[in-house]
Design a protein that fits this description.
With about 500 residues, the chain is α+β, with helices and mostly antiparallel strands. Helix content is about 30%, strand content about 30%. The radius of gyration is 30 Å and the shape is globular.
């Protein structure tokens, strides 16, 4: 079943201006509004969060807004610039998240995530990742995923949650209580329905269809059917002229898995040939399936590094053919390299002794396209253990930073240190006993302390912070990495409580 994401930008005009970073752009804490003109009339058409907190609202006269806020930053509306920036955002979403992305009005995007959400770890991680990444670049967003475009559009705009996942087949329960404004009907139609006492989707869906059609036309019934998924609402995906793609229409619809696989293989060969002429390799490829009922399905394949290996790419795509529902038949297949990078051909070694280089990227690609979250750990220049590493892509280049070798590190480091009770001799002796998770252990060996100082240049609170780490071994032979918060003498350096931070294998 198709799943659709609606991404709504409630502050897009003001966010776009700040994101552009033009000279004189006010900081986020200073109120800012965007002004539209209609003849001699000037009104507020967008306001950021700081302006709204001061009582400014969309539709307010510009003169009244200036009177309420003395140092108000005001910009003229630029709908063309807003749409151009939204188009760029859509292309970025196409590359990062979904094969099918389209504009959803002047303040949102719609994405068909079928066949792509597994690359992001599931729908919830996909939505939260979108919202958080956009917040990181100064764009306020709300996202919702549902079975239909209409339901996702309504929930993203009429709920306050940053992201919402509507369960499969849960559309009716999620939208029946929403106001009828969510149906994307003309304002005069909304006002006419309200005159009849109809305020919610549930009330409208319970009305007889014939009188509604007679009075308001077929649009009310069509929007209701789209909302509940009784009528398809196809998404026409955007495409950039720079994106490399090939397609194959069929005079007779196809549907058998073997036939689909055969033509996918041919399209991959054509795509690789086109990429070769441009010196590119594909990092992310989308197979777009156009069905005869005017609906679109998509399958996405991601690669750890750019390649032009037709056999490898064919395998990744055909592995997911079972996700395609041909319905009454497929009339067209399109294969698009939405993410391509320069690919340099490597010269074969001429040495007498050939070096064997094991390339694990094919395995990484297979596991990644099956929904596995693959990464490796890279060192970071930090003495604080929990900050001394980070997750990177499985095939990321080396950073040039080495792991510390002067002191041993545990094979398992806890995400959060756990407090323990110890008996020891201050200030520098390792614990004699420790109680962890209700079990008392007698320590027979200990090594340390290794003193770790706080990173005062990053956090003022760590100016005097100190940790003393010890490697200890209990009578059962288990080895632990424990530390005392503080130097054991001065309480300004820490609480002098003890914690276990890791276990040696």
């Amino acid at each position: 079943m198709a799943r659709v994401i609606s991404l709504y930008f409630p502050r897009w005009p003001t966010d776009r201006i700040r994101k552009a970073g033009a000279d004189g752009t006010p900081p986020p804490e200073k109120p800012m509004v965007v002004i539209s003109r209609s003849g001699s009339k000037r009104t507020v058409c967008a306001a950021d969060d700081a302006a709204r907190k001061l009582g400014l609202r969309v539709g307010m006269p510009a003169s009244k807004a200036q009177a309420l806020v003395a140092d108000l930053a005001m910009y003229d509306a630029d709908p063309v610039g807003d749409l151009a920036a939204l188009d760029k955002m859509a292309l970025w979403m196409l590359r990062q998240y979904s094969p099918v992305v389209a504009m959803d009005g002047a303040d949102g995007l719609v994405l068909d995530t079928e066949g792509a959400d597994h690359l992001q770890g599931g729908e919830e991680l996909m939505l939260s990742g979108m919202v958080n990444r956009l917040r990181g670049v100064g764009v306020t967003a709300r996202a919702a995923v549902a079975d239909t475009w209409g339901a996702a559009h309504a929930i993203a705009r009429l709920t306050s949650a940053e992201w919402t996942v509507v369960p499969v087949a849960g559309t009716a329960k999620a939208v029946l209580g929403l106001p009828i404004v969510c149906l994307r009907l003309a304002p005069e139609t909304i006002n006419g329905l309200r005159v009849l006492g109809i305020d919610t989707v549930g009330q409208l869906s319970a009305m007889p269809r014939a009188p509604l059609t007679l009075r308001f036309g077929p649009e009310v019934g069509r929007r209701l059917d789209q909302l509940f998924g009784r009528v398809a609402e196809p998404i026409d995906p955007i495409r950039s002229l720079e994106i490399v793609g090939v397609s194959r229409p069929f005079s007779e619809p196809i549907g058998a898995a073997e036939t689909i696989a055969k033509y996918v293989g041919r399209l991959v060969v054509q795509l690789c040939a086109e990429l070769e002429t441009r010196g590119l390799g594909v990092r992310r490829a989308d197979l777009i399936v156009h069905r005869v009922d005017n609906t679109i399905q998509a399958v996405r394949a991601g690669l750890a590094k750019p390649v032009r290996d037709d056999k490898r790419l064919t395998r990744l795509l055909t592995d997911r053919i079972e996700k395609i529902d041909p319905g009454f038949g497929i009339e067209k297949l399109s294969l698009v390299a939405v993410w391509a990078e320069p690919l340099e051909e490597k010269q074969q070694s001429s040495s007498l002794i050939e070096e064997t280089v094991v390339d694990v990227t094919p395995l990484v690609d297979v596991l990644g396209n099956r929904g596995q979250r693959i990464y490796r750990i890279a060192p970071v220049s930090s003495d604080v253990p929990e900050r001394s590493f980070r997750r990177v892509g499985p095939m990321s280049k080396e950073t040039g930073i080495d792991w510390p070798t002067n002191w041993p590190r545990p094979s398992r480091l806890f995400a959060k240190p756990e407090e323990i009770e110890v008996m020891n001799v201050l200030p520098d002796s390792p614990p004699r006993t420790m109680t962890w998770r209700g079990k008392r252990r007698r320590i027979v060996r200990g090594d340390g302390p290794e003193r770790v100082f706080g990173e005062w240049w990053l956090r003022d609170a760590e100016l005097h912070a100190v940790r003393d780490y010890y490697v200890v071994e209990d009578e059962g032979g288990e080895r632990f990495w424990v530390y005392r918060a503080g130097d054991g003498v001065d309480t300004t350096t820490g609480s002098h409580r003890w914690f276990i931070h890791g276990i040696f294998g």
